[in-house]
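Technical note accompanying the year-one report. For the benefit of new consortium partners, we illustrate the data format agreed upon in the data management plan: each record pairs a sequence with a structure-token string. No post-processing was applied to the example shown here.
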Amino acid sequence: KTVFAGDHLQLPPTIKSKEADKKGLSVTLFDRLMKLYEKDFSQILRTQYRMNKQIMEWSSKEVYQGKLIADSSVADHTLLDLLDKDHKGAEDAPVLMLMDTAGCQMGESVNQDESQSKYNVGEADLVRVLLKELIETYNLKPSDVGIITPYNAQVDLIRQERDKEPSWRGIECSTVDGFQGREKEAIIISMVRSNPDGNVGFLGEFRRMNVAVTRAKALLIIIGNPDILIRDSHWATLLSYCLSKNSYQGCPIDQEVKDQLLSGEIENVELLKPQAVLGKDDPDSELFCDKEFR
């Protein structure tokens, strides 16, 4: 008897050989077996013991056919549960936030070395602001906070910002792969991509996305440009979900577009013109953003 245990809907295999990819090695044995025998032999563990139900719900619906259930011990868990009784600060705590950077002069850059890895200085600055808020307001320990970003260049940049505060060095920052199987009370995701071409890059790999958004126990903050994310169907549904939970912050979204997203009509939705993402026509303008993050 053979038992396979795992999740074929999380990180994909890493394939460096194009020839191996063409010959099918990008599909794991687990995935092949699920496609052949899922109805007959598979069993999903439905109850999860990690995250607040609001963080869980999108992944449950979009990836796991709505089958996941949050155990009562975590379903309503927030950062307020971690506060000492004598701590004066926050009276409430968000659970989910998507922070829109469109038009805020937070464009991506590319390392000019062999890696061609992407980074985003504006998002790194915003991460620093959020870290200060989390630690001061909610009295979090550095070990309670994690930062996830898809690109190694952004990992290096955020670590440099983090290390400017010696007491923050316990805050972990890594790629999605580095957080597989891990969890933190609060997770900040820096999406990085913000370009005039609307290119999402490998943010479009939904299994990697699924890992990133399910690492947080009490608070998930996603920093990104919806004009880029909207070009991927999975990220578009997450934007819609955040809107439905009043968890979106940033530039105002046109009511017609908002209605389309909330109704699930995500095809052909455009928030802003792609060239407005970086202020292509006027690099000194603040474009449509009316929110000051710094």
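Partners are asked to follow this layout when depositing records. Residues 273-294 have pLDDT under 50 and may be disordered.
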